[in-house]
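Quick check before the chapter quiz. The format below is the same one you will see on the exam, so make sure you can read both the input and the output lines.
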Amino acid sequence: MRKIVVLLFVSIDGVIQSPGGPDEDVSGGFKYGGWTVPYSDDYIGEVMFKQMDMPFDLLLGRKTYQIFASYWPHQDESTSLAAAHMNKAKKYVVSNNNVNLEWANSVLINKDVVSEIRKLKEQDGPLFQVYGSSNLVQTLLKNDLVDELWLKIYPITLGSGKRLFGEGTIPAGFKVIQSHTSPSGVVVVSYRKSGKVKTGSFE
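Here is the expected output.
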C-alpha cells in the first residue's frame, strides 16, 4: 500500500498558513505571511532536498497546486534537482472546482475524494507527498489517511491562522522516526502513525 506523507512548516501553536511569502494566503486577515523566511538556513535546504530526492507523486489542494504550477515548470531542471523531481512527479489535484491542469502529468480529483484517494493508496507506486493544502490535510486527517508527518516546527507563535490539527482529527498514536534541530532553532521531526491512543494512570 502506498503511503501518504504530509510535509509542513508549522509554528509552535500549530499554524501552517502562508509560510513562504506575504501574499501566499491572506484569507482570514492573516498578516504574517512568510514567517519561516527569517529562520531559513542551509540545513533546512538540505533537509528539503533530501525529502524530495526520492520517487514520489504529489497530492495537492487547488491553491497549492496553482502556486507550484506557476513556479516549478519554469525552473531549470539541469541546475535544480528539486525542480526535476517536482516536474517528473505525477500530480493529483483535489478540488471541488475545475482546475486548469497546466502542469504536465496532472490529474484532477473532484468527486468521491476520500474513496478515490483510498483507491490510489491501494495501487502500486511511490509514496504521496502533500505540501501546504490545508483543507486537503484536514480531509486526510479526518479520514485516517495520513501515514507519516514530516514537520518543520518553528520557534514562533502566530496566534491565529489555519492550523495543522483542526476539528475532526482522529485520535492516533505516532512514533518519532527521526528528530533534529537546525542552527536557527527549527525542530525537524518525522512521525509515523503507530496505532490507537494509549492511556494509563500514575496511581
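If your answer matched, good. The first strand starts at residue 4 and ends at 11.
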